[in-house]
Design goal:
The chain is mainly alpha-helical. It has three helices and two strands. The protein has a domain of 56 residues.
C-alpha cells in the first residue's frame, strides 16, 4: 500500500488505539495515573506513538511495556476479511 500510495501516512511508529488501556493499566499497577507520569491528554480513538509508550515504560521502570513499545511488530487495521477455498492437489 505504501508503494502504491506513498503520500499516505504510515503508522509504523505507533501502537493500536487499544494500547491506551495497556498504558493505563501499567500505571494503575504502580498506583499512578497517566497524568502522574507526564501524559496530560490521551486520544483513545487514535494510535499511541511508540515514543510515548517507551517514555511511560521508562518512567514506570516497566520492562514488559518497554518491550511492547520497542517491538518490531507492525499494527494495521483489518478492513476486510474473506474466506478463500483451498484444495490440495493429489498429483
Amino acid at each position: 500500500m505504501i508503494t502504491c500510495s506513498p503520500q499516505r501516512k504510515s503508522n509504523f511508529d505507533t501502537l493500536p488505539p487499544e494500547a491506551w488501556h495497556t498504558l493505563r493499566e501499567a500505571c494503575r499497577a504502580q498506583g499512578r495515573s497517566l497524568r502522574q507520569v507526564g501524559i496530560e491528554r490521551t486520544q483513545p480513538s487514535q494510535s499511541v506513538p511508540r515514543a510515548l509508550a517507551r517514555e511511560v515504560a521508562s518512567r514506570l521502570g516497566d520492562e514488559a511495556l518497554g518491550g511492547i513499545a520497542d517491538s518490531d511488530l507492525l499494527w494495521d487495521a483489518v478492513v476486510e476479511s474473506a474466506s478463500l477455498e483451498w484444495s490440495q492437489s493429489t498429483t
